[in-house]
Amino acid sequence: MDKFFNLAYNVIMKKLLFLIITAFLTVIPACADNTTGEQAKLLYADNSISESFDLLLSIPEENRTAENWLLLGNILQDKGRNDDANFMYTQAIIKDDKFYKAYYNLGNSYLDANKPHLAIEQYKKVLKIKNDYAYAHYNIGCAYIKLGKYKQARNALLDAIYYKNTEPDFHYNLSYVYKKLNKPKDAQAYLEIYNKLTENKI
Questions:
Q1: Overall domain count for the chain
Q2: How far is CA 154 from CA 51, 72, 82, 110, 186, in A?
């Protein structure tokens, strides 16, 4: 009986040990990829763009985080490769559909490519996740300006200022919109705020 028990015990322990080793070996590459991603971020911040890009590409696609995909997109957009950047931002969204920065950067890419309708769609997705993100409101305003929809632009810019009233460009663009809406007093008021904010930044 003891022999049978010992044999069964040894088999179970070997299986358990095998599972632990397998799990450990699976975790090691993921940890290494996280370290690589952090190094890539530091290189990007230090303006070592090519090194950052190469490091990110060395991470297997299935192990890339949403942030890895986002950074790849940023680098490609900096190089003027918008279509490739859009692919990377989309991959970031597939990896994490609550990653608002990927929607935001995809919106920026569409806005740069003079596709304001597509940009607005992406910024609205940002606001469903993070409604207080002032820059998404602001960029929606900019997109509406491109479309000549000044009332919608005014509303978006007012929302941007509500969440962040110290950004000079928000006030400048709102002044421009009020001018287009034939409201010179409002236009002047926001232009004065813009001037004060820019003076304080000097």
A1: 1
A2: 42, 34, 28, 21, 11
pLDDT category at 44 given cuts 50, 70, 90 is confident
Q: DSSP class of residue 59?
A: S
88-145 pLDDT, tens per residue? 999 999 999 999 999 999 999 999 999 999 999 999 999 999 999 999 999 999 999 9
Residue 185 domain flag: yes
Nearest C-alpha neighbor of 134 from the set 183, 168, 96, 110: 168
Over residues 179-185, the mean pLDDT reads: 97
What is the CATH classification number for the domain harbouring 195? Answer: 1.25.40.10
Measured torsion, CA atoms of residues 134, 78, 96, 61, in degrees rounded to the nearest 10: -170
- Report how far residue 157's alpha carbon sits from residue 139's, in angstroms, rounded to the nearest whole number: 8
Range of the domain at 166: 133-202
153, part of any domain = yes
Residues belonging to the chain: 202
- The answer to whether position 18 is within a domain reads no
